[in-house]
Amino acid sequence: MKVWAETPRDRGWLVGIIFFILGLGTLLPWNFFMTASMYFNSRLNKAELSNGTVAARKEYYFDNWMTLLSQLPVLLCTLLNSFFYQRIPEMVRLAGSMIFIFLLFVLTAILVKIPMEEDRFFTVTMVTIWFINSFGAVLQGSLFGLVGQLPQKYSTLFMSGQGLAGTFAAIAMLISIASDTDPETAALGYFITPCVGTLVTLICYLLLPRLEFAQFYLDKNRSYEVETTDVLLKESSTVDNEKPNDQANGHPPHLAASDEMVEGTTETTPNQAFVRLEPAGDRDKSSVMEVFKKIWVKAFCVTFVFTITLAVFPAITVDVKTKFLGKWEPYFIPVCCFLLFNVGDWMGRTVTSLVQWPPKESRLLPVLVVSRVVFVPLLMLCNVQKRSHLPVLFNHDAIFTIFMALFSLSSGYCVCLSMSYAPQLVAPKDAETAGALMTFFLALGLSLGAALSFLLRLLV
Fold it and tell me: Which parts pass through the membrane (predicted)?
């Protein structure tokens, strides 16, 4: 067992930067996949000549199937990961998931340049979506458990990286519109970018165990550091020679008060020694249900946040129309819906590195989370078109922009607090289990929100 003279420092914030990149890498591939929707629809829903007339081809409803086949594997794999992750080594889960995601995006990039019959292309694309999200769920759940073993600010950095992934995708969308490139070229650029991003993420993960600061917190055998003076060590040696009865009674000399400790190693310096001892209780991890009982409030919070967020974004917000026509019109939704939401969500996550309120024991966090339900009617009463039932109460672009800013900021802030608080409510040995469970409830919230969005859109 390795002995530490003192807690190592994160030199140059290298571990923090790595976890920021890991957070970015978990969501960067999927966000870029979503922004290529125009390419997929143009390739699948083409028109063809029939007897001299243009006839519509088969309708694939790509966006609907993409949403369904992205949420189902996320929910399923996060559930399985919560229960079975202990049986699969961490390196296999993390590095293996990133390698498969990389290979699937390489395949998708290659298919951009390969002509293929529409039905076959649709099938291959849907299978790719299913497996990318399956591996992504395992990757995200495992990384949440990993970062949960470090101080809270690293969880904040990790989630801040996740929030920035959506901003990258929104900027890519704007660049595509401004450059007026063809869908095929845009799609090729989209898919090469996450390939590079996933490769960088894999390299960062492989570098992590080589850093002393990461070793200190992620060492599975690490537990406590006991400082003693050289005088105590000498006394311990004397007692060992003169009072063997202590050991006969089951207590090692000078550590009689530490009944729950098992023997570690010592390292002496001119004035003191540091002993790394492993608590007996750390050898057996708690069951999934025992961990859930400690974090269920935070699990509810993250589920409710994503249920509300996905219920209206983007299903309803994407149909809001601007009052100002002309050159601004094609940029309105990319800027005021997608870019604003992702920037606001990222800022909300980042703020938690400076402010953590309410504290993790407070009952105000669930109240704050539930209060976000007010955004549902507010956004539904904006200028959403087409509409059949509700009136338009907020017609101006500025009002919609304010609603979206507050909506996205509160989403990122509440999610980051809930996800970073959960591992702190359990023992260090159970932090990875808590992270895996929280990722499952995150996926549950996404699925519930996506299902609720169909009903809310019909009510508008």
Answer: 12-33, 65-85, 92-112, 124-147, 154-175, 187-208, 295-316, 398-422, 434-456
Give the number of other Cβ atoms within 10 Å of residue 105's Cβ.
25
- Residue 336 DSSP label: I
In tens, the pLDDT along 432-443 reads 788 878 878 988
CB 350 within 8 Å of CB 413: no
Q: Please tell me the distance from the alpha carbon of residue 183 to that of residue 35, in angstroms, as a whole number.
A: 11
- Sheet strand arrangement including 261-268: 224-229, 272-279, 261-268
DSSP string, 41-75: HHHHS-EEEETTEEEE-----HHHHHHHHHHHHHH
State both tokens at 342.
């992702």
Exposure of 419 in the CB half-sphere (CA atoms within 13 A): 37
Letter for the amino acid at 210? Answer: R
Can you list the alpha helix ranges (DSSP code H) found in 322-430?
A: 329-333, 340-351, 364-370, 375-380, 397-421
Top-ranked range on mean pLDDT: pick from 169-178, 185-194, 216-225, 404-413: 404-413
CATH architecture for residues 1-47+57-221 = Up-down Bundle (1.20)
Query: Per DSSP, which regions of 251-395 are E strands?
Result: 261-268, 272-279
Q: Which CA distances in Å does 353 have to 11, 152, 160? A: 19, 8, 9
Helices 152-179, 340-351: axis angle to 10 degrees equals 160
Distance CA 240, CA 243 (A): 6
Q: Which pairing describes strands 47-50 and 224-229: parallel, antiparallel, or unpaired?
A: unpaired
- The amino acid present at 275, given as its one-letter code, is V
**286-460, CATH topology level:** Growth Hormone; Chain: A; (1.20.1250)
Q: What is the pLDDT of residues 177-223, one digit of tens each?
A: 777 777 677 777 778 888 888 999 999 999 998 998 888 888 755 54
Using DSSP's 3-state secondary structure scheme, residue 8 falls into: coil
Mean pLDDT of the chain: 79
Q: How many residues does the chain have?
A: 460
Q: Is the pTM of this model over 0.85?
A: no
Domain residue spans of the chain: 1-47+57-221, 223-283, 286-460
